[in-house]
Amino acid sequence: MGAMPFYTPAAGRNVNRAFFNARSKAAWEHGHRDYSGTVYEKDEVTLLDEPKRPLPQAIQRAEELIEARDPRFFPRSGPAGALPIEAGTAEPSWLFFGLAAC
User: Fold this and answer.
1) Which domain of life is it from (predicted)?
2) Distance between CA atoms of 26 and 18, rounded to whole angstroms?
3) Are 97 and 6 in contact (CB under 8 A)?
4) CA 17 – CA 25 distance, rounded (Å)
5) Is 11 helix (H, G, I), strand (E, B) or coil?
6) Mean pLDDT across the chain, nearest whole number?
7) Can you name the residues that pair with 12 across neighbouring β-strands?
8) CB proximity list for 44: less than 8 A, separation 6 or greater
9) What percentage of residues in the chain have a pLDDT greater than 70?
């Protein structure tokens, strides 16, 4: 059993709703099974107080945090991280990221 990084953008009226939307989509695309390697594996989310970024820069920041083994998101059983992103949608958007069992 290993872990792989995931980077999942999602929109919602707030971060919790967007997290629900991201998990629901991952479950629909990958099934309701354990070890999917997706955001579906996460039950909690930690919102980072950082400025909005375009998606490519948000992914780069998430990669930096994962590579640094930021204690807010480790071990892999820890919560997902959330960075606010500029997505051009009517609802606010976030990038959910972390390590998930696969």
Assistant:
1) Bacteria
2) 12
3) yes
4) 12
5) strand
6) 87
7) none
8) 79, 80
9) 89
